[in-house]
Amino acid sequence: MVVPASISSVSVEEVARLRERFLAYARSFYTDDPDPDLQEAIDLKIEHTLRVCEESRYISEALGLAADARHLAEIAALFHDVGRFSQYAHYHTFSDRKSEDHAALGVHVLRELEVLAALGPAEDLLLRVIGYHNRLALPGPDDETPACLFFSRLLRDADKLDIYRVVTDYYRRPASQRNGWVAWELPDTPGISEAVCDDLMAGRVVHNDHLRNLNDFKLLQVGWVYDINFAPSLRRIRERGYLQILRDALPDSPCIEMIFEKVGAYVAKRMEDGFVNSCTPCDGSA
Ligand SMILES: [Fe+2]
Q1: How far is the CA of 80 from the centre of ligand 1 (A)?
Q2: How far apart are CA 56 and CA 160, in angstroms?
Q3: Using alpha carbons only, what angle is made at residue 211 by residues 207 and 213, rounded to the nearest 5 degrees?
Q4: Is 38 a domain residue?
Q5: What is the pLDDT of residues 32-68, one digit of tens each?
Q6: Which of 65, 125, 193, 224 has its CA 20 to 30 A from that of 209?
Q7: Rounded distance, CA 216 to CA 147, Å?
Q8: Distance 153 CA to ligand 1 centre (A)
Q9: Cα Rg for the chain, rounded, in angstroms?
Q10: Same domain, 21 and 152
């Protein structure tokens, strides 16, 4: 496996300094007269971010990345959702469809506050990686550098690993203890959308525009396995039983049966074949 050559030297101390900066920024959204929803939303996003950092460290170590690359990946994880705080404060939702693109919002915050300016050429690389983290698909190899695509893949895997934790925890709670914003306020109505089933049976990630209800939202997460880039990430998904929890949270129907057969076969084959295409050769260009 070929991994990125050093892009920029980033010390452990710099990562620690940026972690403090992130926490100070996130906590600045607390108010004297706390709105309990806002308070919980802030706490949830801080917790999510720190866990995505942990997932990023796990993947980086499993891939054998050098220290500088591990640190860059962790900084991307640390700031990937920084746009969520102003998004919730302004719009009271985490739905990008009902507000604005939280990745673009985060890039705007990071530029305005010059948070990553001390990182030199790695600043622009990280802003691109963060900007891509919630896209349906990454740019092609002709439109981005191998290093940018590598770190983007790593961040997207780390983010998904923790979102699986958040949503599977949510689905197992009694309905009375669920906060609608976790599932983008989608209604808990019966059935699944045909377009969602078509996406999954074609081996595609579900398009956000096809989501109509909570079952579709659960199937969106089932389809994420098609967009997992590294073997250690897929291993964690299997070890933690996320697909089984999603299956248990969905109704019985022939269509859902077919989807899980297809996805299960895909996961088994991907683990067997390996991930030879996922680690593109990288030179040092950011
Ligand atoms: Fe995230």
Answers
A1: 6
A2: 11
A3: 160
A4: yes
A5: 766 777 788 899 899 999 999 999 999 999 999 999 9
A6: 125
A7: 33
A8: 13
A9: 19
A10: yes
Q: How far is CA 146 from CA 80, 112, 199, 285, 286, in A?
A: 19, 27, 28, 8, 8
| Same structural domain, 137 and 47 | yes
Classify residue 279: in a domain, yes or no.
no
Rounded distance from Cα 254 to ligand 1 centre (Å): 32
Measured in Å, residue 82 CA sits from the centre of ligand 1 at 9
For ligand 1, a single-atom ion, the residues with CB < 5 A are 81, 159
Domain that holds residue 260: 178-273
**Which of 128, 157, 186 corresponds to the end of one domain?**
157
Q: How far is the CA of 185 from the centre of ligand 1 (A)?
A: 18
Residue 283 lies in a domain: no
- The Å distance, Cα 30 to ligand 1 centre, comes to 20
Total domains in the fold of the chain: 2
pTM over the 0.70 mark: yes
Distance 253 CA to ligand 1 centre (A): 31
Q: Can you read off the two tokens belonging to residue 23?
A: 């926490």
Q: Say how many Å lie between the CA of residue 81 and the centre of ligand 1.
A: 5
